[in-house]
Amino acid sequence: MTDADGRPIVAELGRAETPEETWARKDAARTARRQHQTAFNLVIALIASLGIVLFLVAVVVRPDTQIADRTVDYQQVAKDADVPGVTLAAPPLPDGFSSNRADWSDKSGDGVDVWTVGFLTPDKQYIGLRQGVDANASWVANELEQKPATGSTTINGAEWTVYDRRDEGKDAGNDAYALVRTDGRYTFVLAGTADDASFRTLATAVSEQFADQ
Known about the structure:
Elements: E1 9-10, E2 15-16, H1 19-61, H2 65-68, H3 74-80, E3 98-105, E4 113-120, E5 126-133, H4 137-143, E6 151-155, E7 158-164, E8 177-183, E9 186-192, H5 196-209
Antiparallel strand pairs: 1-2, 3-4, 4-5, 5-9, 6-7, 7-8, 8-9
């Protein structure tokens, strides 16, 4: 239906639109389309951002479990090391113990040659063995973050100095408990998060290896 001028009659108005009403209607439609497009673009942007975050978490942030869980034949590494005149601590240990690190470092920051072995205990705790050659007191202090000794203990006839920081909780880090012993040219630092039984097992094995040195 049209009016006398041939313009369509709007049912809601019961008459034809005025030019101003036509402009307002079209402007409102344009505004609605822009708002819809903006909302659609926002959703697309959010989905893209979420995809990037998921990618980073899955690929970048995820730890490399193959490296973390690797097993190292520390005894073979000790045999292959070219260290004349030095016996490296590599005692056999009971089933359940494994190693995830073994390396020799010439002249650390304290000027001390160091043999390092990382051990995982049967209950998946950690003990790091560090053997300093011709080490001094400052090397031991630096290895244990300048913390004071808390006592001593005798294990299988060998005396070890104790550094017990377990009461510090998480602040103690990976060196919550440590045993230190000097035997001739070698100073051994055993430090980690394991229980007393695992420390005694490793300390006994080290002492027995060097008993006749």
